[in-house]
Design goal:
three-stranded antiparallel beta sheet; Rieske Iron-sulfur Protein; 19% helix; alpha+beta; metal ion binding; 174 residues
Length: 174
C-alpha cells in the first residue's frame, strides 16, 4: 500500500482551505462598517421606541389594585410564642406566613420567596425565615434578606390586633 500524496499547491492548485471554506469573493456582497453601524443604530432606536410604546400602553391600561378586605387570623392566644402559621392572603391560592416571636410580637410576610417562588418557612431555633430551595434566609422580624440568592426581602403583610384578635389588613402581594 502506498502512502497518500500530499495535496498539490502552487499557481495551478488552490490551497486546501479554499476548498474547505469556499467563498465566491467576486459574487459576495460586502457590508461596509458604515452600513453595519447604521443597521445597529436603527435597530437600537426601533427597540427603544418599542419599549417606550409598550410602557406607555401598559400605564394607560393599568388597573388600580383592588383593596383586599381584612382577614381574621384568630385570637392572639391561639398563637404561642415561637410559632408560625400559614394562611391564604391576600387572595385565594396566595399564602402568607404569620410568625409570633418569643417576646409576643407578630410579623407576617408573603410566603413566596422572591428568588424563584419557593415557599419559605419559619425556623424557630434560628429565628429566621428559610427558603429551602437555594438556602435563602430572611430576618423574621423585618423580612429582609440575611443571606443566599434572593436579592430582595419578603413582601410585608400588615397586621392589626383588635379586641384580642389578630387581623391581616393589607399588603402581602406577590
Amino acid at each position: 500500500m502506498t502512502p497518500p500524496k500530499p495535496p498539490k499547491t502552487g499557481p495551478r492548485h488552490a490551497p486546501h482551505w479554499k476548498t474547505d471554506f469556499s467563498v465566491d469573493w467576486d459574487a459576495t456582497d460586502y457590508v461596509s462598517r458604515r452600513e453595519f453601524t447604521r443597521f445597529l443604530g436603527l435597530s437600537s432606536a426601533g427597540m427603544a421606541a418599542g419599549t417606550v410604546l409598550i410602557a406607555g400602553l401598559a400605564s394607560v391600561g393599568a388597573q388600580p389594585v383592588p383593596e383586599v378586605p381584612p382577614l381574621r387570623l384568630g385570637k392572639v392566644e391561639d398563637f404561642p410564642p415561637g410559632s408560625s402559621s400559614a394562611f391564604e392572603y391576600p387572595q385565594k391560592g396566595q399564602y402568607s406566613l404569620l410568625v409570633r416571636h418569643e417576646d409576643g410580637t407578630f410579623s407576617s410576610y408573603g410566603q413566596k420567596c422572591p428568588h424563584l417562588g419557593c415557599a419559605v418557612y419559619y425556623e424557630p431555633r434560628e429565628k429566621v425565615l428559610e427558603c429551602p430551595c437555594h438556602e435563602g434566609y430572611f430576618n423574621a422580624r423585618t423580612g429582609d434578606v440575611i443571606s443566599g440568592p434572593p436579592q430582595r426581602g419578603l413582601s410585608l403583610v400588615k397586621l392589626d390586633i383588635r379586641d384580642g384578635e389578630i387581623w391581616a389588613v393589607g399588603g402581602g402581594g406577590h
